[in-house]
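Researcher: Next entry in the queue.
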Amino acid sequence: MNRVGLGLAVLGGGLVGLLATPRPWLELEAFAARRVGVERDRAQHAERVLRSPAARVFWGAEAQGDPDAACLELRRAALRLRLDPPPTLGTTIEFLRYLEDGHAPSLGGSPFWRATLGGVERTTAWLLAQPQPVSSGQLLLAAAESAGGAALGVLTAHNLVKELAFQGRRADPERIPPFRARLAAALSPWRRAPALPAGGFDRLGPVYHALATLTLVTWTGSPAWGARAADYEAVRRIARIGRDRPDPEKAHADRCGVAAGVDLLPRG
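Model: Structure for this entry, 268 residues:
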C-alpha cells in the first residue's frame, strides 16, 4: 500500500522521543497484540489457505521457527561481510519510498529493483538447490556472492523475499503456484506461532522486514534511519492503520535488521 507522508513520518522521528529506544515499542506492540481479536476476513482467508497444500506452505500455516536464533544468524552473517559503497540509483527519499512501498518490487520498474535482477535470479536458483531450508543469514551471504558485493547483496536478498511475498499474496490462496510454495519452503520460518494475533498467516513478512531495515541502514549509513523506520512501522501496526495490525514478531524482525546493519557498517 502507498503510505501517505512517508518522508515526514520518518524525518519526524524526533517527535517520538519518549519512545526513542526499541524496548518500549516492543512492549507496547506486545501489549496491543494481546488485545486484538481475530478478524473475520482474516479468519476466512486462513480457512482458504488451509484448504490448499501449496498455500499452507507458502503462508506458513504449520511453520514454526525461532526468531532469536534467526536474528542471531542474520547478525553473524552481517559480520562476515565487508560493506562496499552502494551504487547511486536514486535519492534517499526515492529509496525510502521504494523500501516502504506495499507492492511487489518488480511492478514499479524501479532502478533499485532492476539493479538486482541478475542477483535475484542467481540467488533464487541457489535457494531452490539447497537440501534444507536456509536461514536469513545464509540467504544474505548467498545474495552478496551472487550480486558481487555486500551493498547489492543486502538489497538483492530483500528484493527476492519481498517479491516472493507480495506476488504470492496477490494470488488466490487456493491457486498458489507450486513454484512460489517451493521457494517459500526453502526459507527457514521466523515465527514461533504460525497464526497472527489478528488472524491469518504470514510466513515471509518478518524475513523481508528484517532485510528491509538492514538494507536501509547499510545503504544510508545511518542506524537512526533504520530505527525511525522501525518506529514508524510500529506506530502503523499499533494504530491499526490500513491492513496493519499488532505483530510483535514482525516488530522484533524490524529491530533485528537495524542491529544487523549496525554490525555491518563498521566493516566498510
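Model: The CA atoms of residues 15 and 160 lie 33 Å apart.
Researcher: Noted, moving on.
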